[in-house]
Amino acid sequence: MTSGTPERPSRRRHIKSRSGCKNCKKRKVKCGEERPRCRNCSRRGSLCDLADDSTVPDAPALQPAVSPPAPAPDAPDSQTTSLPLPGAPTTIYDGAGLGGFTVLDLELLHHYTTSTGPTLSSDPVTRHYYLVDVPKLGFSHPHVLYSILALAASHLGHFRPESRQYYYAEATARHTAATSIAAPLLSNISVENSVPMYCFSSLTMFISFANLKNDDPFFDASNVIPGWLTLFRGMRTILEANGRAMLSSSIAFLFRSRGNVNDKGGPQQQQLTDHEALREFQDYLDTCTSDEQTRQPLLSAFGDLRTAFTSFYAKEQQLGGNEDKTRSIFTWLYKIPDGYIDLLRQKDSDALCILAFFCVLLHMLEHHWWLKGWGTHLIDGIYTAVGDAHHAWIRWPIQEIGWVPPRRGGLYQITTPAS
Fold first, then answer.
1. Could you give the CA distance from residue 127 to residue 148 in angstroms, rounded to a whole number?
2. What whole-number distance in Å separates Cα of residue 32 and Cα of residue 257?
3. Where is this region: Disordered (predicted)?
4. How many CB atoms neighbour CB 268 within 10 A?
5. What interhelical angle do 292-313 and 349-364 show, nearest 10?
6. 185 and 197 in contact (C-beta within 8 Å)?
7. Helix (H, G, I), strand (E, B) or coil at 291
8. Chain segment 177-222, per-residue pLDDT in tens
Protein backbone atom coordinates (compact mmCIF):
# COMPACT_ATOMS: atom_id res chain seq x y z
CA MET A 1 0.00 0.00 0.00
CA THR A 2 1.50 3.27 -1.08
CA SER A 3 1.49 6.38 1.01
CA GLY A 4 -0.55 9.29 -0.16
CA THR A 5 2.21 11.74 0.71
CA PRO A 6 4.28 12.55 -2.37
CA GLU A 7 7.95 11.78 -1.95
CA ARG A 8 10.20 14.89 -1.93
CA PRO A 9 12.95 14.89 -4.51
CA SER A 10 16.39 14.71 -2.94
CA ARG A 11 18.42 17.95 -2.92
CA ARG A 12 21.53 18.00 -4.99
CA ARG A 13 24.57 18.19 -2.80
CA HIS A 14 27.29 20.68 -3.60
CA ILE A 15 30.76 21.18 -2.34
CA LYS A 16 31.06 24.15 -0.06
CA SER A 17 33.77 26.68 -0.86
CA ARG A 18 35.50 28.88 1.66
CA SER A 19 37.17 31.07 -0.94
CA GLY A 20 34.23 33.31 -1.73
CA CYS A 21 34.38 37.06 -1.38
CA LYS A 22 33.81 38.77 1.94
CA ASN A 23 30.62 40.50 0.81
CA CYS A 24 28.90 37.20 -0.01
CA LYS A 25 30.09 35.65 3.25
CA LYS A 26 28.69 38.56 5.19
CA ARG A 27 25.32 38.28 3.42
CA LYS A 28 25.46 34.46 3.78
CA VAL A 29 24.85 33.85 0.09
CA LYS A 30 26.68 31.58 -2.31
CA CYS A 31 29.54 33.33 -4.11
CA GLY A 32 30.14 32.36 -7.74
CA GLU A 33 33.81 33.38 -7.30
CA GLU A 34 33.89 35.01 -10.75
CA ARG A 35 36.94 37.20 -11.30
CA PRO A 36 37.80 39.99 -11.14
CA ARG A 37 34.42 40.58 -9.47
CA CYS A 38 31.83 37.99 -8.54
CA ARG A 39 28.32 38.16 -10.06
CA ASN A 40 26.66 39.14 -6.78
CA CYS A 41 28.98 42.11 -6.25
CA SER A 42 28.60 43.13 -9.89
CA ARG A 43 24.81 43.11 -9.58
CA ARG A 44 24.90 45.13 -6.33
CA GLY A 45 27.66 47.47 -7.51
CA SER A 46 29.86 46.50 -4.55
CA LEU A 47 33.66 46.44 -4.42
CA CYS A 48 34.70 42.79 -4.57
CA ASP A 49 37.85 41.71 -2.76
CA LEU A 50 38.47 38.94 -5.32
CA ALA A 51 39.95 41.62 -7.59
CA ASP A 52 42.91 41.89 -5.24
CA ASP A 53 43.92 38.31 -6.07
CA SER A 54 43.78 38.71 -9.82
CA THR A 55 45.16 42.15 -10.69
CA VAL A 56 48.61 41.84 -9.15
CA PRO A 57 49.63 38.20 -9.53
CA ASP A 58 53.29 39.03 -10.07
CA ALA A 59 53.79 41.52 -7.24
CA PRO A 60 57.19 41.03 -5.54
CA ALA A 61 57.39 39.71 -2.05
CA LEU A 62 57.11 42.27 0.72
CA GLN A 63 60.23 41.13 2.50
CA PRO A 64 62.84 43.80 3.18
CA ALA A 65 66.35 43.21 1.97
CA VAL A 66 67.64 44.00 5.45
CA SER A 67 65.44 43.81 8.52
CA PRO A 68 65.31 47.10 10.45
CA PRO A 69 67.07 46.71 13.81
CA ALA A 70 65.05 47.07 16.94
CA PRO A 71 65.75 50.34 18.77
CA ALA A 72 67.48 50.45 22.11
CA PRO A 73 65.18 49.84 25.11
CA ASP A 74 65.71 53.35 26.38
CA ALA A 75 65.03 55.01 23.02
CA PRO A 76 62.36 57.69 23.48
CA ASP A 77 60.54 56.65 20.31
CA SER A 78 60.87 52.91 20.74
CA GLN A 79 57.12 52.40 20.66
CA THR A 80 56.93 53.58 17.05
CA THR A 81 60.28 52.54 15.56
CA SER A 82 59.94 48.95 16.75
CA LEU A 83 57.08 48.33 14.33
CA PRO A 84 58.04 46.20 11.31
CA LEU A 85 58.59 48.23 8.17
CA PRO A 86 57.37 47.15 4.73
CA GLY A 87 59.98 46.00 2.30
CA ALA A 88 61.22 46.98 -1.16
CA PRO A 89 60.56 45.37 -4.52
CA THR A 90 63.29 42.80 -5.11
CA THR A 91 62.69 42.19 -8.81
CA ILE A 92 64.45 44.06 -11.60
CA TYR A 93 62.24 46.23 -13.75
CA ASP A 94 61.32 44.33 -16.92
CA GLY A 95 59.64 47.12 -18.86
CA ALA A 96 56.14 45.69 -18.38
CA GLY A 97 54.86 48.57 -16.27
CA LEU A 98 55.14 50.11 -12.83
CA GLY A 99 53.45 47.34 -10.88
CA GLY A 100 54.78 45.98 -7.62
CA PHE A 101 55.20 49.20 -5.66
CA THR A 102 54.78 48.83 -1.93
CA VAL A 103 53.53 50.89 0.99
CA LEU A 104 57.15 51.80 1.65
CA ASP A 105 57.42 53.23 -1.87
CA LEU A 106 54.42 55.47 -1.15
CA GLU A 107 56.05 56.58 2.09
CA LEU A 108 59.30 57.33 0.26
CA LEU A 109 57.54 59.36 -2.44
CA HIS A 110 55.71 61.35 0.23
CA HIS A 111 58.97 61.87 2.14
CA TYR A 112 60.70 63.10 -1.01
CA THR A 113 58.06 65.73 -1.76
CA THR A 114 57.81 66.94 1.84
CA SER A 115 61.35 66.58 3.17
CA THR A 116 64.07 65.43 0.74
CA GLY A 117 63.30 67.62 -2.28
CA PRO A 118 63.59 70.96 -0.44
CA THR A 119 67.12 70.04 0.71
CA LEU A 120 68.52 69.73 -2.81
CA SER A 121 68.66 73.46 -3.55
CA SER A 122 68.09 76.79 -1.85
CA ASP A 123 67.35 78.50 -5.16
CA PRO A 124 63.53 78.81 -5.55
CA VAL A 125 63.58 77.96 -9.25
CA THR A 126 65.76 74.88 -8.86
CA ARG A 127 63.88 73.75 -5.75
CA HIS A 128 60.56 73.92 -7.61
CA TYR A 129 62.09 71.83 -10.38
CA TYR A 130 63.10 69.05 -7.96
CA LEU A 131 59.83 69.20 -6.03
CA VAL A 132 57.34 69.38 -8.92
CA ASP A 133 58.87 68.71 -12.33
CA VAL A 134 61.11 65.76 -11.44
CA PRO A 135 58.32 63.66 -9.81
CA LYS A 136 56.07 64.37 -12.81
CA LEU A 137 58.82 63.13 -15.10
CA GLY A 138 59.17 60.02 -12.95
CA PHE A 139 55.61 58.91 -13.69
CA SER A 140 56.53 58.37 -17.35
CA HIS A 141 60.20 57.38 -16.86
CA PRO A 142 60.65 54.65 -14.24
CA HIS A 143 64.42 55.17 -13.86
CA VAL A 144 63.71 58.70 -12.63
CA LEU A 145 61.00 57.51 -10.23
CA TYR A 146 63.14 54.73 -8.79
CA SER A 147 65.96 57.25 -8.28
CA ILE A 148 63.59 59.57 -6.39
CA LEU A 149 62.63 56.71 -4.08
CA ALA A 150 66.27 55.70 -3.59
CA LEU A 151 67.29 59.23 -2.62
CA ALA A 152 64.39 59.49 -0.16
CA ALA A 153 65.44 56.18 1.42
CA SER A 154 69.01 57.50 1.82
CA HIS A 155 67.62 60.65 3.44
CA LEU A 156 65.58 58.61 5.93
CA GLY A 157 68.62 56.47 6.71
CA HIS A 158 70.62 59.58 7.48
CA PHE A 159 68.14 60.79 10.09
CA ARG A 160 67.09 57.37 11.46
CA PRO A 161 70.43 55.90 12.55
CA GLU A 162 68.78 52.97 14.33
CA SER A 163 67.51 51.76 10.90
CA ARG A 164 70.29 53.15 8.72
CA GLN A 165 71.47 49.84 7.25
CA TYR A 166 67.88 48.94 6.38
CA TYR A 167 67.17 52.18 4.53
CA TYR A 168 70.50 52.12 2.71
CA ALA A 169 69.73 48.58 1.54
CA GLU A 170 66.34 49.74 0.30
CA ALA A 171 67.96 52.70 -1.47
CA THR A 172 70.44 50.37 -3.17
CA ALA A 173 67.64 48.06 -4.36
CA ARG A 174 65.74 50.92 -5.96
CA HIS A 175 68.76 52.57 -7.51
CA THR A 176 69.85 49.23 -8.95
CA ALA A 177 66.46 48.98 -10.64
CA ALA A 178 66.84 52.54 -11.95
CA THR A 179 70.32 51.86 -13.30
CA SER A 180 69.16 48.70 -15.09
CA ILE A 181 66.76 50.87 -17.09
CA ALA A 182 69.07 53.85 -17.67
CA ALA A 183 72.27 51.99 -18.55
CA PRO A 184 71.18 50.91 -22.06
CA LEU A 185 70.16 54.51 -22.82
CA LEU A 186 73.54 56.06 -21.97
CA SER A 187 75.03 54.96 -25.28
CA ASN A 188 72.22 56.60 -27.25
CA ILE A 189 71.42 60.01 -25.78
CA SER A 190 68.78 61.66 -27.92
CA VAL A 191 66.80 64.87 -27.80
CA GLU A 192 63.80 62.89 -26.52
CA ASN A 193 65.52 61.11 -23.63
CA SER A 194 68.13 63.72 -22.68
CA VAL A 195 65.97 65.48 -20.06
CA PRO A 196 65.00 62.32 -18.11
CA MET A 197 68.58 61.07 -18.41
CA TYR A 198 69.88 64.33 -16.96
CA CYS A 199 67.37 63.99 -14.09
CA PHE A 200 68.53 60.44 -13.47
CA SER A 201 72.18 61.54 -13.49
CA SER A 202 71.63 64.45 -11.09
CA LEU A 203 69.65 62.26 -8.66
CA THR A 204 72.33 59.58 -8.93
CA MET A 205 74.93 62.18 -8.01
CA PHE A 206 73.01 63.08 -4.82
CA ILE A 207 72.57 59.38 -4.02
CA SER A 208 76.31 58.79 -4.42
CA PHE A 209 77.11 61.68 -2.07
CA ALA A 210 74.58 60.34 0.45
CA ASN A 211 75.94 56.78 0.51
CA LEU A 212 77.58 55.44 3.63
CA LYS A 213 81.24 56.43 3.51
CA ASN A 214 82.40 52.98 4.61
CA ASP A 215 80.60 51.43 1.63
CA ASP A 216 82.64 53.48 -0.86
CA PRO A 217 86.24 53.32 0.36
CA PHE A 218 88.24 56.08 -1.26
CA PHE A 219 91.46 54.18 -1.67
CA ASP A 220 90.17 50.73 -2.51
CA ALA A 221 92.31 48.97 -5.09
CA SER A 222 89.42 48.78 -7.56
CA ASN A 223 87.90 52.20 -6.78
CA VAL A 224 90.57 54.80 -6.26
CA ILE A 225 88.32 57.84 -6.38
CA PRO A 226 84.86 58.48 -4.89
CA GLY A 227 81.95 57.53 -7.12
CA TRP A 228 80.50 61.03 -7.34
CA LEU A 229 83.73 62.39 -8.82
CA THR A 230 83.36 60.30 -11.99
CA LEU A 231 79.58 60.72 -12.17
CA PHE A 232 80.10 64.23 -13.49
CA ARG A 233 81.73 62.70 -16.57
CA GLY A 234 78.34 61.16 -17.36
CA MET A 235 76.48 64.42 -16.74
CA ARG A 236 78.86 66.24 -19.06
CA THR A 237 78.26 63.63 -21.75
CA ILE A 238 74.50 64.17 -21.50
CA LEU A 239 74.76 67.96 -21.55
CA GLU A 240 77.09 68.00 -24.53
CA ALA A 241 75.18 65.41 -26.57
CA ASN A 242 73.35 66.39 -29.78
CA GLY A 243 75.19 69.68 -30.15
CA ARG A 244 74.39 70.78 -26.58
CA ALA A 245 70.66 70.63 -27.37
CA MET A 246 70.00 70.36 -23.63
CA LEU A 247 70.78 74.07 -23.31
CA SER A 248 67.66 74.84 -25.35
CA SER A 249 65.46 72.14 -23.81
CA SER A 250 62.60 72.49 -21.33
CA ILE A 251 65.10 72.63 -18.45
CA ALA A 252 67.47 75.17 -20.02
CA PHE A 253 66.65 77.54 -17.14
CA LEU A 254 68.73 75.33 -14.83
CA PHE A 255 71.91 76.20 -16.70
CA ARG A 256 71.46 79.95 -17.02
CA SER A 257 73.74 82.08 -14.89
CA ARG A 258 72.06 83.70 -11.90
CA GLY A 259 74.98 85.74 -10.68
CA ASN A 260 77.35 82.88 -9.95
CA VAL A 261 80.68 84.12 -8.76
CA ASN A 262 82.44 81.95 -11.30
CA ASP A 263 81.20 84.36 -13.98
CA LYS A 264 82.81 87.41 -12.42
CA GLY A 265 85.68 86.21 -10.30
CA GLY A 266 88.57 87.57 -12.36
CA PRO A 267 92.28 87.46 -11.52
CA GLN A 268 92.12 90.59 -9.34
CA GLN A 269 89.19 89.25 -7.30
CA GLN A 270 90.91 85.87 -7.04
CA GLN A 271 94.06 87.49 -5.74
CA LEU A 272 92.08 89.19 -2.96
CA THR A 273 90.51 85.92 -1.80
CA ASP A 274 93.43 83.54 -2.29
CA HIS A 275 94.96 82.14 0.84
CA GLU A 276 98.74 82.08 1.02
CA ALA A 277 98.67 78.27 0.93
CA LEU A 278 96.84 78.36 -2.42
CA ARG A 279 99.39 80.71 -3.94
CA GLU A 280 102.30 78.64 -2.63
CA PHE A 281 100.90 75.44 -4.10
CA GLN A 282 100.26 77.23 -7.41
CA ASP A 283 103.94 78.25 -7.52
CA TYR A 284 104.90 74.65 -6.76
CA LEU A 285 102.75 73.29 -9.61
CA ASP A 286 104.30 75.77 -12.05
CA THR A 287 107.71 74.18 -11.50
CA CYS A 288 107.03 70.68 -10.14
CA THR A 289 107.40 68.77 -13.42
CA SER A 290 108.70 69.24 -16.92
CA ASP A 291 106.15 66.77 -18.32
CA GLU A 292 103.62 69.01 -20.04
CA GLN A 293 101.08 66.18 -20.36
CA THR A 294 101.03 65.81 -16.58
CA ARG A 295 101.36 69.46 -15.62
CA GLN A 296 98.55 70.89 -17.76
CA PRO A 297 95.70 68.82 -16.19
CA LEU A 298 97.02 69.73 -12.73
CA LEU A 299 97.21 73.45 -13.54
CA SER A 300 93.75 73.43 -15.12
CA ALA A 301 92.13 71.62 -12.19
CA PHE A 302 93.81 73.80 -9.58
CA GLY A 303 93.10 77.03 -11.46
CA ASP A 304 89.38 76.24 -11.57
CA LEU A 305 89.47 75.26 -7.90
CA ARG A 306 90.93 78.64 -6.94
CA THR A 307 88.02 80.24 -8.78
CA ALA A 308 85.61 78.09 -6.76
CA PHE A 309 87.23 79.33 -3.54
CA THR A 310 86.17 82.85 -4.52
CA SER A 311 82.53 81.90 -3.85
CA PHE A 312 83.41 81.05 -0.26
CA TYR A 313 85.86 83.80 0.71
CA ALA A 314 84.90 86.93 -1.26
CA LYS A 315 83.00 89.28 1.06
CA GLU A 316 81.03 90.89 -1.76
CA GLN A 317 79.75 87.46 -2.77
CA GLN A 318 78.18 86.61 0.58
CA LEU A 319 74.79 87.74 -0.74
CA GLY A 320 74.92 84.82 -3.14
CA GLY A 321 74.53 82.51 -0.18
CA ASN A 322 74.91 78.78 -0.10
CA GLU A 323 73.47 78.28 -3.59
CA ASP A 324 76.47 79.99 -5.21
CA LYS A 325 78.81 77.94 -3.04
CA THR A 326 77.14 74.68 -3.94
CA ARG A 327 77.15 75.58 -7.63
CA SER A 328 80.83 76.42 -7.45
CA ILE A 329 81.81 72.91 -6.31
CA PHE A 330 79.55 71.34 -8.95
CA THR A 331 81.11 73.60 -11.57
CA TRP A 332 84.60 72.46 -10.56
CA LEU A 333 83.60 68.80 -10.69
CA TYR A 334 82.05 69.36 -14.09
CA LYS A 335 85.05 71.18 -15.58
CA ILE A 336 87.99 69.11 -14.31
CA PRO A 337 89.81 67.53 -17.26
CA ASP A 338 89.88 63.81 -17.88
CA GLY A 339 93.65 63.91 -17.55
CA TYR A 340 93.27 64.97 -13.92
CA ILE A 341 90.88 62.06 -13.26
CA ASP A 342 93.48 59.71 -14.74
CA LEU A 343 96.14 61.11 -12.41
CA LEU A 344 93.85 60.51 -9.43
CA ARG A 345 93.34 56.92 -10.51
CA GLN A 346 97.11 56.56 -10.54
CA LYS A 347 97.24 58.07 -7.01
CA ASP A 348 99.44 60.91 -8.19
CA SER A 349 100.43 62.86 -5.06
CA ASP A 350 100.09 66.29 -6.66
CA ALA A 351 96.59 65.46 -7.94
CA LEU A 352 95.62 64.19 -4.48
CA CYS A 353 96.87 67.43 -2.90
CA ILE A 354 94.52 69.39 -5.17
CA LEU A 355 91.66 67.17 -4.00
CA ALA A 356 92.71 67.91 -0.41
CA PHE A 357 92.13 71.64 -1.05
CA PHE A 358 88.72 70.73 -2.48
CA CYS A 359 87.95 68.96 0.82
CA VAL A 360 87.94 72.38 2.50
CA LEU A 361 84.98 73.45 0.35
CA LEU A 362 83.15 70.17 1.03
CA HIS A 363 83.67 70.68 4.75
CA MET A 364 82.23 74.19 4.57
CA LEU A 365 79.03 72.79 3.06
CA GLU A 366 78.45 70.06 5.62
CA HIS A 367 75.11 71.61 6.56
CA HIS A 368 73.86 69.72 3.48
CA TRP A 369 72.99 66.27 4.81
CA TRP A 370 74.21 64.61 1.60
CA LEU A 371 77.69 66.16 2.01
CA LYS A 372 78.02 65.35 5.70
CA GLY A 373 81.42 63.85 6.56
CA TRP A 374 82.95 63.90 3.09
CA GLY A 375 85.62 66.50 3.89
CA THR A 376 87.13 64.54 6.78
CA HIS A 377 86.59 61.21 5.02
CA LEU A 378 88.60 62.24 1.96
CA ILE A 379 91.36 64.09 3.80
CA ASP A 380 91.94 60.95 5.86
CA GLY A 381 92.45 58.87 2.73
CA ILE A 382 94.56 61.52 1.03
CA TYR A 383 96.88 61.84 4.01
CA THR A 384 97.45 58.09 3.98
CA ALA A 385 98.05 57.92 0.21
CA VAL A 386 100.47 60.82 -0.34
CA GLY A 387 104.08 60.52 0.72
CA ASP A 388 105.58 62.30 3.71
CA ALA A 389 107.05 64.96 1.43
CA HIS A 390 103.54 66.07 0.42
CA HIS A 391 102.08 66.21 3.93
CA ALA A 392 103.32 69.78 4.22
CA TRP A 393 101.32 70.86 1.15
CA ILE A 394 98.05 69.69 2.68
CA ARG A 395 98.73 71.19 6.10
CA TRP A 396 96.41 74.14 5.45
CA PRO A 397 93.45 71.98 4.31
CA ILE A 398 93.93 69.80 7.39
CA GLN A 399 93.86 72.86 9.65
CA GLU A 400 90.79 74.35 7.95
CA ILE A 401 88.86 71.11 8.29
CA GLY A 402 90.01 70.54 11.86
CA TRP A 403 91.05 66.96 11.18
CA VAL A 404 93.71 65.34 13.38
CA PRO A 405 96.34 63.27 11.54
CA PRO A 406 97.17 59.81 12.89
CA ARG A 407 100.04 59.56 15.34
CA ARG A 408 103.03 57.56 14.20
CA GLY A 409 106.05 56.93 16.38
CA GLY A 410 104.80 59.37 18.99
CA LEU A 411 104.94 62.39 16.64
CA TYR A 412 102.39 63.96 14.29
CA GLN A 413 103.60 63.80 10.73
CA ILE A 414 103.14 67.39 9.59
CA THR A 415 106.32 69.08 8.43
CA THR A 416 107.30 72.38 6.89
CA PRO A 417 107.64 72.63 3.10
CA ALA A 418 111.20 72.62 1.89
CA SER A 419 112.29 76.00 0.62
1. 14
2. 67
3. 59-87
4. 7
5. 10
6. yes
7. coil
8. 999 999 888 888 888 888 999 999 999 999 989 875 544 444 443 4
